[in-house]
Sequence to fold (431 residues):
Amino acid sequence: MLSCKINGEEIHSEIPSDMRLIDFLREEMNLTGVKEGCSEGECGACTVLFNGDPVNSCIMLAIQAEGAEITTIEGIAKDGKLSDLQQAFIDHGAVQCGFCTPGMILAAQALLDKNPHPAEAEIRHAISGNLCRCTGYQAIVDAILAVSQRK
Amino acid sequence: MDVIRPGSLQDCLRILKTEHTIPIAGGTDLMVNLALNKISPDRIIDITGLQELKEISLSDNFLKIGALVTFSRLAGKEIAQYPCCNALREAAEKMGSPQIRNRATIGGNLVTGSSAGDGSVAILALDAQVELTGLDGIRKVPLSLFYSGYHQTAIHSDELLTAVYIPIRPGTSSFQKVGKRNALAIAVASLAIYSYIRDSHFEQIYIAIGSVAPTPIRAVKTDLFLQGQKITSGVIKEAARIIQDEIAPITDIRGTADYRRKLIANLLADQLQQLSESKN
Ligand SMILES: Cc1cc2nc3c(=O)[nH]c(=O)nc-3n(C[C@H](O)[C@H](O)[C@H](O)COP(=O)(O)OP(=O)(O)OC[C@H]3O[C@@H](n4cnc5c(N)ncnc54)[C@H](O)[C@@H]3O)c2cc1C
Ligand code: FES
Ligand code: FES
Fold:
């Protein structure tokens, strides 16, 4: 039995003990915003927040989330309204195919939660575990910078 | 395959006695090896619920770092207050990616025993000891005796690495690694130095190197040469020559043996140069 909080909701679920966290989130919880790219911790597409910190859900077991708070991209919009980061990604053209976007936004959100006004170098450091094959990163960095300068 | 999450260290150790059972910490090595079918245990014990392995504490001039302390924490304030442990903090900052650092533990890095292990190389220069705990008791092993071969260490299959002890001393340490890119890069070569300089002479110096042998190694000959010396440009040059003779790296996809030798010489010269600028 796994008990944890996912996007603010208490979850109790009977799961196979060797299930990966990514499979639990996608298959059992239908949170398909968690993407699977490399399956070995390199690309960051499967990033979720684990007690506020970004982690790769493809190389974690679901059972390791016992008692933890997990946030996926589905938990970022509030009351049907996109978050500032989500809106900024749209405004800056930081989304092309969109595969990296959930992980990218979660990694950036974790940074801004701890450090609301990061320098550009800190932003690049914070998303260094998230690969994007489309944008060349500049639009993504611009979007995050825009949000950090607004507040 | 069964995964269990025992509530106490004693329970973990008892279950670890059963065959084909291995512990999982951050899982950043283990989960990848599982996916690649490099390992196929019957049972995995998740030790990440053991709070007592997450502590960092100072007593009797030893910094005790619990096996489950993550690289994110090693890169933070708790280690930054000890200049002699700089190498560990610098290694932690450069390791993996934010996501990897948030899960990867120092215990996992040491037990994996990779010669490219950033934490392992840094800690080897700090003259540390590891604490290995089994049902029969606790033993402490100097890190210099911990690595026995390619991905092999002195830990027994029914033991857990519970902590690392680093002596807190005067002096400073540093770590540098060269990879193919900044994030998510396995070291082509890495080098860590602990040193204590008194009256402009090396009172004590320990050099550790990664990715030039089957395990992380100490550069004992180079240490001996530098012991008691004053850092001059001539001494730096000679040390860089000695260290190239001392190591026997291999050629692999990340770099040739010759390139590695030169890298190590340059990393050593660079760090000695920085020491000379800060101390003289
Ligand atoms: C994308 C990626 C990038 C990486 N980059 C780097 C890098 O830059 N530098 C680097 O050094 N490493 C890197 N690694 C390797 C890895 O993250 C580290 O070796 C990490 O420290 C392993 O710790 P862990 O807690 O995840 O170990 P796990 O994967 O949980 O365990 C590793 C091994 O150690 C055993 N083990 C773990 N803890 C204990 C314990 N307390 N007692 C006994 N046995 C134990 C396990 O049984 C297993 O055999 C990377 C890995 C990935 C996937
Ligand atoms: S799918 Fe997890 S890091 Fe690539
Ligand atoms: S938008 Fe396509 S991978 Fe980033």
User: Anything to note?
Assistant: The first helix of chain A runs from residue 21 to 28. The longest strand of chain A covers residues 2-6. The two ends of chain A are 42 Å apart (CA to CA).
